[in-house]
Amino acid sequence: MTDHLRQKFEDIELTAGHGKVSAFLSVSLGILGIFSALCFLFPSVLTTPELRPFYTQHYQTLYYTLLGGIVLAAGFGTYSAILKQNKYGFYGLCFSVVAAILGCGMIKAPTLPTLPYYAGFDYFVITLIILALVFIPLEGFFAKNKQQKLLRTGWVTDMKYFMLSHIGIQLFSFLTVMPIQYWITHIPNNPIVPYIQAQPIGLQFIELLVVVDFTTYWIHRALHEVDFLWRFHAIHHSTEHMDWLASSRLHIIEVLITRFIATLPIFLLGFHTSAVFAYLIFISFHAIFIHSNVRFRFPYLRWVIATPEFHHWHHSSEKPAIDKNYAAFIPLYDLIFKTMYMPNHLASVYGTVGYKIPNSFTKQFTWPFKKYVNRLKKRFQKSET
Ligand SMILES: [Zn+2]
């Protein structure tokens, strides 16, 4: 998407009465309908294997939900395009027609051959629907920054990050979790594992929080304090608008580094799969929550666990807040290592200081490498002259 086209979709005020809300709903449901219909058409390659047993059990319900979504997309699109003369409503109508064509006639549950590779189209659609249903009303009713629009500057870029991290779930785990899993299972008689697994799941969950948070505190601190690593993490900090979607803005290299190192203690200590799953779901949801545009302050609790207030200060561009509040969940680590910053008021300005980071997804991908590419270019030019 060109910069010009991206900017057209950003900073749109969803004011009632102009057909914008119905156009937004139509376009969103239409696009999600296309993704879902593709899942029904190519389940072997576009769905997550762990979720397939659920799909087989509830196939008809899911199929009728898809049809319902398409009908709603078409309805909102028709209203917006014809009655309100909104061109985005027309786009939504077109998307719903494409989704209907793709989704037509697939009533029978197909048999699923097991293929080694898949893309998490279903994971993207389901997660986006759940998070949008939770966070859009939450931020709407309890907004910290009431002026911030739903479709604020940078949302298109952040949505691309969200898509990539969900659709590419297998690729990410192939590059991070699997090598560790392979390596750890080849360590004979790890003495810690039976001791950890004998403990109740709840206790293992708390231990995971304590251990992984200690690891991620130091990865996060290194991402800020080592210049080479900071160039990748700066992409995450480049957002000037905090909300639930902003949590997705992470350079692929940062995702790989963080996941690889954070996964190490999980496998090395041999936590039970149930505790690990519960931990991953909880911490992923919590990570989104602390970025969200909400004004809750959680008296007392804000000193014990990381809250939106605590993490918003980490993203603040105010001088005293720079390189502070690294903990993902336990602020105590910041207190111990003297990186805590929690004044009495809430943070209000965000972004990187002293860097001009581009807004587009592709330019953000190449930005961290630019300094080194330019250095190489200069060296070549010097050696030629
Ligand atoms: Zn950071």
Automatic annotation (TrEMBL):
<dbReference type="Pfam" id="PF04116">
    <property type="entry name" value="FA_hydroxylase"/>
</dbReference>
<feature type="transmembrane region" description="Helical">
    <location>
        <begin position="90"/>
        <end position="109"/>
    </location>
</feature>
<feature type="transmembrane region" description="Helical">
    <location>
        <begin position="63"/>
        <end position="83"/>
    </location>
</feature>
<dbReference type="InterPro" id="IPR006694">
    <property type="entry name" value="Fatty_acid_hydroxylase"/>
</dbReference>
<keyword id="KW-1133">Transmembrane helix</keyword>
<feature type="transmembrane region" description="Helical">
    <location>
        <begin position="276"/>
        <end position="294"/>
    </location>
</feature>
<protein>
    <submittedName>
        <fullName>Sterol desaturase family protein</fullName>
    </submittedName>
</protein>
<keyword id="KW-0812">Transmembrane</keyword>
<dbReference type="GO" id="GO:0016020">
    <property type="term" value="C:membrane"/>
</dbReference>
<dbReference type="GO" id="GO:0005506">
    <property type="term" value="F:iron ion binding"/>
</dbReference>
<dbReference type="GO" id="GO:0016491">
    <property type="term" value="F:oxidoreductase activity"/>
</dbReference>
<keyword id="KW-0472">Membrane</keyword>
<dbReference type="GO" id="GO:0008610">
    <property type="term" value="P:lipid biosynthetic process"/>
</dbReference>
<feature type="transmembrane region" description="Helical">
    <location>
        <begin position="21"/>
        <end position="43"/>
    </location>
</feature>
<feature type="domain" description="Fatty acid hydroxylase">
    <location>
        <begin position="208"/>
        <end position="339"/>
    </location>
</feature>
<feature type="transmembrane region" description="Helical">
    <location>
        <begin position="163"/>
        <end position="184"/>
    </location>
</feature>
<dbReference type="InterPro" id="IPR050307">
    <property type="entry name" value="Sterol_Desaturase_Related"/>
</dbReference>
<feature type="transmembrane region" description="Helical">
    <location>
        <begin position="121"/>
        <end position="142"/>
    </location>
</feature>
